[in-house]
Amino acid sequence: MHSRSLPATLASIILLCASAPASGQEIAFDLDPARTTVQFTLGGTLHTVHGSFKLKRGAIRFDPATGKIGGEAVVDATSGESDNEGRDRRMHDNVLESARYPEIVFTPDRVEGVVARQGASQVEVHGIFRIHGAEHEVMLPVHVEMTLTADARATAKIHFTIPYVKWGLKNPSTLFLRVSDKVDIDIAAYTR
Question: Domains of the chain, with CATH numbers?
């Protein structure tokens, strides 16, 4: 569930890349927390859990000539919800420990591939995903849809899977309700 932050960050990165004015020129973008969505899906034996997190903030700098990217995307770990109060309390208290680790952060460092100034692009964004007090190196696939507008806005969609148990978080399964040790993340990011 901590991986929600990663998608938000990746989306920020992609958005930044997609709106690049010219090669060799660094571009800076702010992600729009009000429009960006971070959703998760956790499969289980009897049911599938769907939920969401909120983007807290995101600022990205990108150089389309070198593929170098910087900044961060921060997801509010305490905002996670799945429309079930008891399940959400267990998620925050036992899995995310969101009172102790209130932020999930993705810090990108490079983009592999080229972001088209118009239309669709598929790139990969490399960086560090920080969740539950630990850092994990990741490479995320990002689909960018770029349409040049007067205010140079862009959108990015990211789908990936986080092996949260392998990363040291607890599996919330019970005796009768078993869930996957991986969580799927879907992010739709927008710039301001």
Answer: 2-190 (2.40.128.110)
